[in-house]
Amino acid sequence: MIKPNNFSGILCGLAISVLILPIASFTQVETLAVSAQPLPNNPASTPSKKVVARIWHGTTLTSKADEYYAYLVEAGIKKIESIPDNLGAQVLRRTDGNNTEFTVISYWESRDAIRKFAGNDIEKVRPLPRDNEYLIKPETTVKHFDVILDDRK
Fold first, then answer.
1. Under DSSP, is residue 94 helix (H, G, I), strand (E, B) or coil?
2. Which residue(s) pair with 107 in the sheet?
3. E-only strand ranges, 12-109
4. What pTM value is reported for the model?
5. Is 126:117 a contact under the CB 8 Å cutoff?
6. For the purposes of burial, counting CB atoms within 10 Å of the CB of 41, is it exposed (0-12), middle (13-18) or buried (19 or more)?
7. Is the per-residue pLDDT at 48 higher than 60?
8. What is the pLDDT of residues 69-114, one digit of tens each?
9. Higher per-residue confidence, 33 vs 9
10. 144, 52 in Cβ contact below 8 A?
11. Beta carbons of 93 and 48 less than 8 angstroms apart
12. d(Cα 24, Cα 22) in Å, to the nearest integer?
């Protein structure tokens, strides 16, 4: 059995629906089309400049993080940046208590350019000689992404 309070609420809701639906059917809805085309003047996506990002993660003890970072730059980043068709690299660092995570993003002209560094299996990690001294549970694969927007200033 419907109580009077509930009944009046239901009636009110139905009345509003009956009044609003016909009005809503006459309104125009404008849709926004999003283009999947590269942005003009975006160096990462112009037809003459395709860029591939290679992303690697590693975690070390926070107590060894500064030492590992110095080693990573000397033994890894400088080597990567010396390879033809490498476009540079970024090192990101995040500390969470006793663990510090590093993310290295290196940028390349193509996947073929990455093969000059990583060999035919570009998804396989190429560890640095002393990584076992520093890294906790080293990852065995890296990921590659096509850079479709680079809007850094």
1. strand
2. 53, 88
3. 52-61, 86-96, 99-108
4. 0.69
5. yes
6. exposed
7. no
8. 999 999 999 999 999 999 999 999 999 999 999 999 999 999 999 9
9. 9
10. yes
11. no
12. 5
**CA distance linking residue 126 with residue 123, whole number of Å:** 9
Contact predicate 128/75, CB 8 Å: yes
Beta-carbon contacts of residue 33 (< 8 Å; ≥ 6 apart): none
Q: What is the pLDDT of residue 23?
A: 40
Alpha carbon distances (Å) from 84 to 78, 106, 111, 117, 150:
12, 13, 12, 9, 21
Other CB atoms closer than 10 Å to residue 43's CB: what's the count? 11
Output Rg (C-alpha) for the chain, integer angstroms: 27
Diameter over CA atoms, the chain: 81
Q: Residues for the chain: how many in total?
A: 153
Cα dist. 43→104, 108, 127, 145 in Å?
Answer: 21, 13, 30, 16
pLDDT in tens, 13-46: 544 444 444 444 434 434 334 334 454 555 554 4
Say which amino acid occupies 149. Answer: L
pLDDT value at 9 more than 80: no
